[in-house]
């Protein structure tokens, strides 16, 4: 690990905006944000993976991975981050370095040629270059190559120094944010600037969730200058320092960006959520209040309340048919980060009971919000072994499991409904419309008659196997 990368990682572990790191002692802080990864283990994503998923939703740039083919193959398009226009971000571009490049020391030359080729072919506004484990171990100076390419080719080349071995996916998110702070944000001026410009940080437009929020802001006359990084354009991110307010959606990912933008450019930030009716309304109020403090028209507060009243009434009217069927249903929530508490709020609004929620990747602030929502007996868990989760579901502790795709088979084996709420999901759950979508999908999963069928015992489990075989149709050979 280079000295500059060591210094950057150490700085992130001392991030004053992260309550979890600040509360640690000197020895614990040096160990990082999570248990060190075992090389080769499936540990839920490495630092490179975290950096790539945080930056890939910038849709009009080329994302070039400097490393073996497998690194790009594993990380390509692993989230449904949607774009309203450009599709350049969906290209899988890699230098595909081989053993010969390692032995001959030709990795840097290969990287420069790759940068030159993608600029000539696609003419992007910028190229993001990701360092992976192999070039980092053999000493390729990705930052120097990017500086040289920027000077020679006239296109910004952004080094993202987050090789997988330095830590977990969450650390990679923060290293991606550092790359934006060091090389992108503040490098361009916006074409238009208004007193109601805001940025949203840590929102990746999964399945188009940003598009459920943008119309609400448009109706209030609030201009979304940049979403970092969902459906983002390079120029929007580069000029994001001229916004008046930052909303932080996921503090575990980009808290360093929010805090440093406040230090450098005086942009206040707050943490909020667009999951659930109440949280969406609270976020809109917070945005309006901060904008007015920053000089926006005072009538923005009244217009915000009018919009909230109208949208809440409309949402509750659409949710009314589902409330009786879902009230009292028990949910096991196995996710992390902002969803560990924001989804709890959304479920409780429908009268559902959250029997447990995971706090993986959750900050101390996230855990406090869970306690406030669920009361003093809040059942928070870190990691649940599959065997234990299976036992809970088989006992009937929960009526449905809400989690990511990796645990769906535990629910299916236990014959319990399951709903995907992680980044692989195909439905958008943000905002007032997203709440209706979430409730509709919950109702569909819970009321699906398939579950009763699969829970019924098989004929050979309740009767005489010989009698069952006697009644079975005979196999007729085909001549």
UniProtKB/TrEMBL annotation:
> Which pathway does the UniProt entry assign to this protein?
Cofactor biosynthesis; Fe-Mo cofactor biosynthesis
Identify the InterPro entries for this entry: Nase/OxRdtase_comp1 (IPR000510), Nase_comp1_CS (IPR000318), NifE (IPR005973), NifE-like (IPR049939)
- Write down a Pfam family by its short name: Oxidored_nitro
GO biological process terms, alphabetically, are: protein-containing complex assembly
Query: Could you tell me one molecular function GO term of this UniProt entry?
Result: nitrogenase activity
Protein family according to the UniProt entry: Belongs to the NifD/NifK/NifE/NifN family.
Family matches, as PANTHER family:
NITROGENASE IRON-MOLYBDENUM COFACTOR BIOSYNTHESIS PROTEIN NIFE
Q: Could you tell me what this protein does?
A: This protein may play a role in the biosynthesis of the prosthetic group of nitrogenase (FeMo cofactor).
Q: What is this protein called?
A: Nitrogenase iron-molybdenum cofactor biosynthesis protein NifE
Q: What taxonomic lineage is listed for the species of origin?
A: Bacteria, Pseudomonadati, Pseudomonadota, Alphaproteobacteria, Acetobacterales
